[in-house]
Design a protein that fits this description.
By secondary structure, this protein is of the alpha/beta class. The chain contains 13 helices and 8 strands. It has helices at about 1-40, 80-95, 120-135, 145-155, 185-190, 190-200, 200-210, 210-220, 225-230, 240-260, 285-295, 310, 315-330, and strands at about 45-50, 55-60, 70-75, 95-100, 140-145, 160-170, 270-275, 300. α2 crosses α13. The longest helix is centred in the first third of the chain and has 39 residues, at about 1-40. The N and C termini lie far apart (about 80 Å).
Length: about 350
């Protein structure tokens, strides 16, 4: 019996040593990846001081005499370059002032309030504070994907900063079916485990699948040329950002359940732009019912287009923003009737 116990102890020790070696190698790889990615994609625009830290921006277009100011908010696991390079530069060329934010914890923005910053309401408060400090607003706020919920939260809680909403392939309504992930995902999402993986195995595995993830989110369209580099997609591989991305996704269902009942109270002009082939979000479960929930909302459906509308239907989105700018600038413009 003693021999069996000793054998088991030896086996467990060997397994622990192997796990330690793998995690150690992952930690070294993570340090290298973080340093390389940070050097390849340094901050591009000015920072804005807010409570708890600062937010990074990328800005384009005229600061004076602009047609309107457009605030761009990016989706999950992304950063300000994603909407800026997708549609922001095109909007700036049309005479708009464009301000794209790295959401708290992404790109070069501070997380500000740790795990609490996963809530759209918390991020919205930080964006509103930054806009006030920049003397920006009311502005047209364009939120893509996850940031559909953020843009809506901003309009609900800080209406003085929002003149119009353009929600692009938005995630905004509670999910119809609660999905229970496999046991290994539930384990990986536990805070201590997620913290450990984000600093060891997560970044090198993420680097391996970066191009695959881009192909998946662009379907059925091909990935835009140079997307991974132009969007600075690799910034998400840094440990703190990877952890923030996981936290945002985990916290989203509860946030949607809390804020969705308030959408009927919105009185801000709203346009929803969606592709009818969006496999990432699904326009029939999000965009379409959302357009019936927000008073006076317009719905623009793009045939055959997937989730990455800013990159693959840029002109259609520019047209939608231009129409919104004309609408909010019209002398007869008034709050949307209930």
């Amino acid at each position: 019996m003693k021999a069996v116990i000793l054998a088991l102890a030896s086996l467990l020790g060997l397994v622990a040593a192997l796990i330690g070696a793998v995690l150690g190698a992952g930690a070294v790889a993570t340090l290298i990846i973080t340093a390389r990615v940070s050097a390849q994609h340094p901050p591009e625009g000015p920072f804005v001081d807010v409570a708890g830290g600062r937010l990074a921006t990328i800005q384009a277009g005229p600061e004076t005499g602009a047609r309107a100011t457009i605030v761009l908010l990016h989706g999950a696991s992304a950063n300000a370059s994603d909407p800026m390079e997708g549609v922001g530069r095109a909007l700036a060329a049309q005479g708009f002032r464009v301000v794209a934010f790295d959401r708290p914890g992404f790109g070069w923005s501070d997380r500000l309030s740790g795990e609490d910053a996963a809530a759209p309401a918390v991020q919205g408060a930080a964006i509103a504070e930054a806009l006030e400090r920049m003397n920006v607003g009311p502005a047209i706020v364009l939120g893509h994907s996850w940031a559909g919920a953020l843009a809506l939260s901003l309009a609900l809680d800080h209406p003085e900063r929002v003149s119009g909403l353009v929600l692009v392939a938005p995630v905004a309504l509670p999910f119809r079916e609660a999905r229970t992930p496999a046991w290994y995902w539930r384990l990986a999402l536990q805070p201590p485990v997620a913290w450990l993986l984000s600093r060891t195995l997560g970044p090198p595995i993420g680097l391996r699948f970066l191009e695959t993830a881009a192909r998946n989110v662009f379907q059925p369209q091909p990935v835009a040329e140079g997307y991974v580099d132009r969007s600075r997609a690799a910034l998400v591989l840094r440990p703190a950002t990877l952890l923030a991305s996981v936290q945002d996704l985990v916290a989203l269902p509860a946030a949607l359940a809390a804020q969705a009942p308030r959408y009927k109270s919105l009185r801000v002009p709203t346009t929803i732009v969606t592709g009818d082939a969006d496999g990432a979000v699904g326009n029939t479960s999000q965009a379409e019912p959302l357009s019936r929930t927000i008073p006076g909302a317009d719905l623009v459906e793009l045939p055959g287009i997937g989730h990455m509308v800013p990159w693959v239907s840029t002109q259609a989105l520019v047209d939608a923003v231009s129409k919104m700018a004309e609408r909010v600038a019209a002398p007869e413009a008034a709050p949307v009737a209930p």
